[in-house]
Amino acid sequence: MKLFWFETYKIFSRWRTYISFGFIALIVIMTEVVMKLSANEILYRMMRSFQKDFLIFGNVLNGWFITAFIMNSLHIHIPFFITLVAGDIVSNEATSGTVRLLLIRPPSRSKIITAKYLTTLFYTTGLVIFLGLICITLGFLLFGNGDLIMNYQTKLRIVFIPEAEVPLRMLLAFMAAVWSMTVVASLAFFFSTLAENSIGPIIGTMAVVIVFLVLGNFPFDFFRLLSPYLFTTYMVFWQRFFDQPIPWREIVRPAVILGLHSIGLFSIAFIVFNRKDIKS
Amino acid sequence: MEDDSRKEVILRTRDLSKKFGKRWAAKDLNLEVHRGDVFCFLGPNGAGKSTTIRMILTLLMPSAGSIEIFGLDLRKDRYAVLSRVCGIVEKPDFYLYLSAYKNLEMLGSMTCRVQKEEIMEALNVVGLTSRAFEKVKTFSHGMKQRLGIAQALLTKPELIILDEPTMGLDPQGMKEVRGLIKELASEKKMTIFLSSHLLSEVELVATRMAVINRGELIAQGSVSELLDKEPMEYSIQVSPLDSAVRLLEKLPWVEVLAAEDSKIELRVEPGHASRLNRFLVSNQIEVLSFYPHRTLEDFFLKITEGTSEI
Questions:
Q1: Which of A178-192, B53-67, B251-265 is the least confident region?
Q2: pTM of the entire structure?
Q3: I need a surface site. Which of A3, B57, B107, B182 has the fewest CB within 10 A?
Q4: ipTM value of the model?
């Protein structure tokens, strides 16, 4: 616990940690303000495909919808902010030479690496929660409350979630988003144990995420076959919490696959760190 | 009693070896550090000093051999051993974005519970009290080195391991660090294990030493014991010169090497230095100056002759 506290104190003593929070706040504020200014246009685009068939009343463009919209848009960008800390947390100790200071202390390497990993997860969770809170708070201030209407154009489906049910769905979706981001954090963390500077792990992780996303989205049969083997395919499973009813089967499988990825990556990082010779 | 305690071996390596690829960085090292020693581990750059220290501090895994500290096996009793040991490997790197105080608090707490007063006391010993709450990134190299010693003092270790503690320091900084090392050994009764390639440093601070070259142990023992094995060269300034030379040439334990301008260069068998001075004075020769040429450097070069790459 003490080691976890030290690690947390260290990462929150560095300005780079706040870059992510600052940029997320900036992006969310800009997006929501622009959406507020273009509310009519957005509403028209949202409704045009089904306004002939449905009569919809109430506040459609509300805080919940805005939050779901931003989550959908940012799931590629958030990993980058996560890697800033996760890719740096071990490698930076090597760059700055403090790894020597740390590893000659009585606590074992296993405890140190576990504390660092838990801190990485804590930061990841904090970042996603921060995104959620700022989206919802600002969304409510600018757009108010209402039912959540999700228009899945690719599936030709519209889902209505009553206002009373939305908070729980949103909470579950954010928990799933944290779970997804944990894999990115674990990947960056694993790279961080291999490297002696933070650039490699940050770029390496982003490269893997981007390449996997691109491969997973190519509309060719070969890439469709490849898709189930790419963890990025499962990262948007949080969207399933906005289906009606919640398709639990479609949630459990990706959650388990992502969880296994996180455990696997941490286990390798754990072994690498424990066996590593500190030559720098 | 004191002799017995001085003989207590608190650090012992048995056939300690480390191989990187095909190269042995350290091979079959059998070191013994006694309680109360200022033990200097001497060797040229690349001899294997840092590799050995890193193995002792668990930064490197030995390829073979074992390390015993306070009678405990380092591998099996890592926590118990490292709770009583502190070290600085190469340069003292701290979290630059944290204050000196916070660095010590964090690092100290990883070993034991530390109070604010103890942190301030450690900073006081190294003269950094006034900078306690400033970020380490504003510190000079010398100040970081002193902060390194402060963190070593904080947990009151019985054994302090310092890798090249004066490296990169200006002469004033070197003097301060050497002073601190002596103080730790004499006043705080700590055992110091330090590595250096600065030969003068060993003469100034060490009580015992080991010499390593190309990963192999060449010599080990007390500084005086090792140095007194070899004849020593002196330069003496005397008056009158001719009489002095004539007298000295008759002595079997003295070899006159050169005599010029009231100065004589000579080689004396081990243990005869004070006898030589007495001999000259008792024969009405005025001794104006008397200083040894023998340095650890001579000793070092001699024993590493043919193997050293310095």
A1: B251-265
A2: 0.85
A3: B182
A4: 0.81
From chain A, the residues in CB contact with B80 under 8 A are: 106
**Domain ranges across chain B:** 2-222, 232-293
How many Å apart are CA A179 and CA A256, to the nearest integer?
Answer: 10
B 15-74 residues inside an 8 A Cβ radius of A: 54, 57-61
CATH of domain B232-293: 3.30.70
Sort out which chain A residues have CB atoms less than 8 A from B96's CB and list them.
96
Alpha-carbon distance A223 to A240, whole Å? 23
Q: Are A85 and A122 in contact (CB under 8 A)?
A: no
- How far, in Å, CA of B256 to CA of B268, rounded? 9
CATH class of B2-222: alpha beta
pLDDT value at A104 more than 70: yes
Is 60 exceeded by the pLDDT of residue B18? Answer: yes
Whether A104 and B60 lie within 8 Å, measured CB to CB: no
What distance in Å separates the CA atoms of residue B170 and residue B176, rounded to the nearest whole number? 10
What contacts A173, CB < 8 A, 6 or more positions away?
A68, A71, A238, A239, A241, A242
Kindly report, residue by residue over A134-187, the tens digit of the pLDDT.
999 999 999 888 888 876 655 667 788 888 999 999 999 999 999 999 999 999
